[in-house]
């Protein structure tokens, strides 16, 4: 009996007891692609039925199919806001950012960043949402965008210089934000060329969108 067949049999025995919680350690590690797909489909069906499935894996294709992902580095949990906002950092780099970021909670409509202010942090949204708004000289306000969990802001000013091009406030449901000091931010992206390039591309796109949509003076 092959190791893959043994693993399939072990999974079948475990599921036969109809457990409420299933802990699977590398459940597809020794399986061929077809068998692995069958196992994952079964797990997804069980999750729909209300079962809790906990999977330990190093396979990114599995993590893409989960409802929630927890990343560990050296036995420590990486902050989800960091993992989602800066996915191209290595896990050790993510852990550094996790230790360096400061958490702040904002009530609905609280101003997080005001247009024209200096930007001293890279902001990562952990939960809730924020609204990006701009004002013209007549104080008319326009909403440019709403950013949610896993998104970020502050990158335009940090990478291109200048004061804040817009105001950012918590949306109606409030927001929890992780703030990474700009010196720590610069150090991290300099050590990760792919992260730096991705952030710069987002900043350029948002800057262009801002110029296109901002209200006339």
Automatic annotation (TrEMBL):
Q: Which GO terms describe its cellular component?
A: plasma membrane
A GO term for molecular function: ATP binding
What the entry lists under SMART domains is as follows: cNMP
Residues in Cyclic nucleotide-binding domain copies = 85-206
Name this polypeptide is given: Cyclic nucleotide-binding domain-containing protein
